[in-house]
Amino acid sequence: MNVSDAIRTKRAVRKFQEKPLTEETIRAILNAGRRSQSSKNNQDWRFIAITDKAVLKELSQCGEWAGHIAGAALAVAILTPDPSEKFQYLFDAGQSAAFMQLAAWELGRLIGNRRDSAIYGGGWRRGDTLLNRERGAGKGVRCWIIRSSGVSGL
Fold this sequence. Notes:
Order of helices and strands: HHEHEHEHE
Number of domains: 1
Distance between the termini: 20 Å
Shape: globular
Largest sheet: 4 strands, antiparallel
């Protein structure tokens, strides 16, 4: 599949089958995000890959439109420093999310995926607390985007 086809045919999927993704697939998705461009090549993002169903369910309750995360095989939390210091942080996070989406779609159109700026209002505090508790996200970064992936249920 070429890039134009991937962009033209990609779909946002919110329903997933109860099938895990292979380690190879997860790494391919994460590597696509890692390879995306960033302002001055700073790569100031952090990715947290989540496959634990209990954690996915908790994350799905952190935003009004994040419910699909509970059914995903994988969620990737994209964390950056505070964008009030440098607005490019959010642009760079969005670029990495888009690269991951296209990589997931290119893997045979079997991997559905969705990007959400899932954590807003008070939900970001719950999300950050959860990510720090479960995965040691660290101080000075905050989750701005969560992407979900799984075998498409459509």
